[in-house]
Q: What sequence folds into this?
């Protein structure tokens, strides 16, 4: 088995796609030395300053520049050092990238991949947010949330090749995940060559009949652990679904599961007000036949606090997820 | 001949385009008053010399980024007045099939990139377009138009700085009509000339009379030629004045009467026509004939737009994703 960490899978995907397609380039702060989390390490040496562009601290500037270059035929990959910094460039993504194709009646396309390292990891409120739900309300953007090394590489390649702007989410605490020490359900080989993982294809990571648990990123890892413990300890058989892409959303895979379990739990690191979890619940309720019990598990509705004890308190852990699943089963 | 004096044919061509824009905007206003245009409109009469002087420096392969007031520049870059008028009326035959509207026009085949009415948003995007020209070793240039108001937004700073440090072939044309909607530039900048901001980025900056089409052309031409040969970006400030309000809902009562009167005397079309006659390039009669000829072109565009069909409902759902 060829195992790579998510970090390595991303780096390999970037490098191979840049080798294959000369229109792909990387732009962001400190990307010459690898960027915020070393995903781009080695690219500068291989591709040089023409294709690995260090920028001033100018999120509006380099996001806009990427969008302009994408309209003119290139395929930029924009790195935000922390996903939180994307808010500096909100106008460029929401008003420009997402709408340019539409407003021009298809005269331009905007194939940009925006890479956002997200998730709480002991840095406090402005370096901790999961921002993906905020963008779900903007037509014209795709939103991708890989949780395994295989998906990280394959979804990244699909994102780069997409003719649409894609927000590509990387969880900081998963960069080092290679399957060793994590849930077996998320392990797997990373092919050496290039491959695409298609959008709108959620996967059942663990089968079950009692309750459907829908998650992504780090919370998916914790949800699988919670589901396994519940099965051992209480005989509760939870089916765990990895969404992989939030936009487009694979509603069918979720409904197929919920029609069997009639219980739906969404587990997310976003705080649950106006989040993607609600969209999943609404889509299921709207389309499925029969009744369903639902439960939301998410981060507390506060900014993310700094110190470890408090951060652990607001972010869902395995224990809280287990309790949430139990609650819905009992009720 | 003075330094700014252009050859006969070139100046006549520029005058023709300025007249076309003026007639177009007057017609747009008429159609608006007849209730044929949804929303609002931002007319550019009074500012034609900037659009024409600057665009006359460009080739078809060069690309322009426009603003919420884009009609004049689009015509100057070569857009078909029929397709532009139809877009403003929201018709299927419009350049964006009625999905863009007056503020969001595009004709990529003519190098007219989607116009962006979010103030300053096009400034870094123009740098991106210029980046592609540079990477592909093309000698084409990008040109980004914006108003005085845009020079105070962050995108201006970030975009100009990036274009400067990477020596990108882009020309930034600041159309300083002295007001950001109602706010005088005197209340929003300590600078007498906004082109001074170029010094912050280490690039050339120049202020010109934006109502003198030859002055605009000469200054912008120098910047364009510099960009074509790898000399990087420039900031050209063209001081001008809009004859009307910011949009149809703005009667522009905040401007002193004497100021308005002074600028109306300095109408760029009057100035240009006078030059043509003084130099013997055209007689008064020939000027009238040229103006009538453009009135016909615009009338045809209006008839085309009015008679065109509304778009089919289904297209509202298209072009969100590829």
A:
């Amino acid at each position: 088995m060829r195992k790579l960490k998510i970090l390595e899978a991303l780096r390999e995907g970037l490098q191979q796609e840049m080798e294959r397609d000369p229109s792909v380039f990387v732009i962001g702060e400190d990307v010459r030395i690898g960027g915020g989390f070393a995903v781009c390490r080695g690219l500068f040496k291989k591709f040089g300053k023409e294709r690995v562009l260090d920028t001033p601290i100018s999120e509006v500037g380099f996001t806009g520049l990427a969008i302009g270059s994408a309209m003119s035929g290139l395929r930029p990959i924009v790195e935000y050092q922390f996903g939180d910094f994307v808010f500096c460039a909100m106008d460029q993504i929401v008003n420009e990238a997402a709408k340019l194709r539409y407003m021009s009646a298809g005269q331009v396309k905007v194939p940009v991949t925006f890479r956002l390292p997200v998730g709480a990891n002991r840095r406090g409120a402005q370096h901790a947010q999961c921002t993906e739900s905020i963008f779900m309300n903007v037509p014209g953007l795709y939103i991708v949330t890989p949780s395994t090394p295989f998906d990280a590489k394959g979804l990244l390649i699909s994102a780069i090749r997409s003719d649409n702007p894609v927000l590509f989410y990387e969880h900081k605490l998963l960069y080092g995940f290679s399957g060793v020490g994590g849930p077996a359900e998320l392990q797997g080989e990373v092919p050496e060559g290039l491959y695409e993982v298609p959008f709108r294809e959620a996967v059942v990571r663990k089968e079950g009949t009692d309750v459907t648990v829908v998650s992504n990123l780090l919370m998916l890892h914790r949800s699988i652990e919670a589901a396994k413990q519940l099965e051992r300890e209480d005989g509760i058989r939870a089916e765990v679904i990895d969404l992989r892409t939030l936009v487009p959303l694979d509603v069918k895979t979720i409904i197929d599961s919920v029609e069997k379990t009639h219980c739906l739990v969404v587990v997310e690191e976003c705080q649950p007000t106006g989040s993607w979890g609600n969209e999943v619940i609404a889509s299921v309720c709207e389309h499925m036949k029969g009744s369903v019990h639902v439960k939301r598990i998410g981060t507390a509705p506060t900014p993310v606090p700094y110190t470890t004890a408090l951060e652990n308190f607001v972010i869902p852990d395995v224990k809280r997820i287990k309790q949430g699943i139990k609650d819905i089963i009992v009720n | 001949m003075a330094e700014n004096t252009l050859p006969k044919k070139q100046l006549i061509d520029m005058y023709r385009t300025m007249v076309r824009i003026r007639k177009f905007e007057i017609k747009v206003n008429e159609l608006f008053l007849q209730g044929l245009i949804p929303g609002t409109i931002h007319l550019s009469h009074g500012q034609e010399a900037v659009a024409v002087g600057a665009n006359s420096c460009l080739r078809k392969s060069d690309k322009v980024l426009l603003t919420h007031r884009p009609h004049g520049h689009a015509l100057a870059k070569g857009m078909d007045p029929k397709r532009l008028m139809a877009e403003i009326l929201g018709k299927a035959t419009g350049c964006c099939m009625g999905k863009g509207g007056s503020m969001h026009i595009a004709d990529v085949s003519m190098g007219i990139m989607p116009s962006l009415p979010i103030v300053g948003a096009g400034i870094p995007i123009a740098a991106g377009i210029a980046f592609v020209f540079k990477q592909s070793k093309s000698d084409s240039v990008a040109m980004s138009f914006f108003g005085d108001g845009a020079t105070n937004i962050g995108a201006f700073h970030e975009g100009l700085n990036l274009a400067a440090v990477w020596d990108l072939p882009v020309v930034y044309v600041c159309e300083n009509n002295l007001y950001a909607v109602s706010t005088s530039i005197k209340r929003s900048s300590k600078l007498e000339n906004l082109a001074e901001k170029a010094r912050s980025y280490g690039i050339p900056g120049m202020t010109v009379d934006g109502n003198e089409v030859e002055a605009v052309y000469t200054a912008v031409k120098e910047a364009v030629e510099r960009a074509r040969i790898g000399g990087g970006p420039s900031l050209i400030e063209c001081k001008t004045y809009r004859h009307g309000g910011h949009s149809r809902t703005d009667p522009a009562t905040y401007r002193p009467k004497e100021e308005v009167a002074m600028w109306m005397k300095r109408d760029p079309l009057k100035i240009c026509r006078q030059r043509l006659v003084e130099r013997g390039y055209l007689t008064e009669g020939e000027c009238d004939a040229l103006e009538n000829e453009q009135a016909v072109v615009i009338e045809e565009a209006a008839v085309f737009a009015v008679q065109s069909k509304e778009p089919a409902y289904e297209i509202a759902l298209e072009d969100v994703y590829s």
